[in-house]
């Protein structure tokens, strides 16, 4: 049986690849700029927290330190993603960005737990907090973090790496808001426990968003079907709209980095159908209707090369348990 692997589908989704390339170059610059902003103000905020005795400022400075490192790592992930594929890494370095996003999620979890622990200690022995200087430093921090958030928000929000970077800056922004609120309460009422209370509130908010980032990044790393796509619906769509395709099975759909989607499948064809034309039609359908940039299609007549059964059913033969099949090897 002939395994027709066609590469002429590039014209259908060349625009997608070009758009991703433009986004990548822009996102790389955005992340580097925000990393410099974050690193510069982190020093100011750490000194302000130490001089005023504010946990909210110190916690936010600690968060900004890890954010600066995380943003630098995100920038390097974009840099690596520009490298061409190699014989060992045939898909290139694009998935490094997803790995960095997952790592950033873990780092945020650790930071939030440390803030909660430090807040608990401060409840036991409340320190003196200077509300005036704390308010001034937090106000400057808010301006810096808003600027960083706006810079990153203009990038590709489908990129998990960018989402991780935005999440770090969003955590800093919330930290600055909490520090300002705590400073105002301390200046007006003198009630210092508000400082650790608001720090814990920010930590909880960060934990929830970090969990979503880690979940989405893990889904990509586990080669799960992209959330906006339904594998079985795609299979039925091909069977219904591509002439000569009797059945689709052994189908796998996954994402390389959260934005570029890929698929492998076996297509059982009617007798007399031109396999090359059928494969081209399937790839065009996948690119045009389902935003799947790269597909490996194995045409079959009568029997599946990976099994002894004869085809004649419908999409229920997609075999949910199949993990390895010839379509993975190009």
UniProtKB/TrEMBL annotation:
It is found in: Membrane. Coiled coil: none annotated. Residues 1-22, 303-330 are annotated as: Disordered. The keyword Lipid metabolism does not apply. It is a multi-pass membrane protein. Residues 32-222 form the Cation efflux protein transmembrane domain. Keywords: Ion transport, Membrane, Transmembrane, Transmembrane helix, Transport, Zinc, Zinc transport. Residues 226-299 form the Cation efflux protein cytoplasmic domain. One of its GO terms (molecular function) is zinc ion transmembrane transporter activity. The chain crosses the membrane at residues 31-51, 57-78, 99-120, 132-153, 165-191, 197-214. Pfam families: Cation_efflux, ZT_dimer. One of its GO terms (cellular component) is plasma membrane. Its main location: membrane. Belongs to the cation diffusion facilitator (CDF) transporter (TC 2.A.4) family. SLC30A subfamily. This is Zinc transporter ZitB.
């Amino acid at each position: 049986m002939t395994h027709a692997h066609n590469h002429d589908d590039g014209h259908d989704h060349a625009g997608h690849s070009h758009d991703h390339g433009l986004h990548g170059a822009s996102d790389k610059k955005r992340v580097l700029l925000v990393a410099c902003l974050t690193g510069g103000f982190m020093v100011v905020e750490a000194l302000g927290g130490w001089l005023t005795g504010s946990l909210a400022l110190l916690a936010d400075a600690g968060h900004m330190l890890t954010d600066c490192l995380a943003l630098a790592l995100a920038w390097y992930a974009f840099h690596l993603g520009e490298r061409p594929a190699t014989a060992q890494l045939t898909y290139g370095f694009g998935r490094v960005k997803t790995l960095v996003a997952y790592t950033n999620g873990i780092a945020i979890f650790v930071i939030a737990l440390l803030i909660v622990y430090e807040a608990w200690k401060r409840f036991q022995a409340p320190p003196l907090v200077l509300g005036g200087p704390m308010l001034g430093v937090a106000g400057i921090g808010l301006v810096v973090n808003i600027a960083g958030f706006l810079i990153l928000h203009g990038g590709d929000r489908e990129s998990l790496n960018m989402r991780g970077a935005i999440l770090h800056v969003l955590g800093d922004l919330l930290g600055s808001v909490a520090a300002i609120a705590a400073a105002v309460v301390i200046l007006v009422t003198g009630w210092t426990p508000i400082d650790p209370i608001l720090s814990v509130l920010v930590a909880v908010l960060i934990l929830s968003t970090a969990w979503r980032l880690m979940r989405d990044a893990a889904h990509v790393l586990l080669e799960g079907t992209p959330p906006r796509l339904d594998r079985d619906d795609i299979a039925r769509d091909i069977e219904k709209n591509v002439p000569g395709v009797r059945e689709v099975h052994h189908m796998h759909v996954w994402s390389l980095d959260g934005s570029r989607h890929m698929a492998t499948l076996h297509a059982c064809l009617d007798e007399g159908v031109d396999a090359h034309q059928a494969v081209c039609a399937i790839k065009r359908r996948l690119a045009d209707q389902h935003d799947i940039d790269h597909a490996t299609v194995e045409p079959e007549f009568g029997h599946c090369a990976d099994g002894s059964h004869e085809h004649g059913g419908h999409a229920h033969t997609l075999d949910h348990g199949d993990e390895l099949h010839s379509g993975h090897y190009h």
